[in-house]
What we know:
By secondary structure, the protein is α+β, with helices and mostly antiparallel strands.
Amino acid sequence: AVGVSDCCNFFAAVKVYQAAIAQGIKPILGVDLPCVYPDKPNEISLLPILCQNQIGYKNAVRLVSKAYLE
């Protein structure tokens, strides 16, 4: 397997997915989303999200879209 995780987007996902599949390697796609906790509003943490399958990828895309809009 090979994985890639972008910060706040999936810009590298298509290229990594296509290259991995072409070589017979399972791609693992991920994204790091910024999170702010209510009790520490001045601190931003990154939450890594890895996609286990197509359903996970779709859910992660929804989260990325929501994070971008809010």
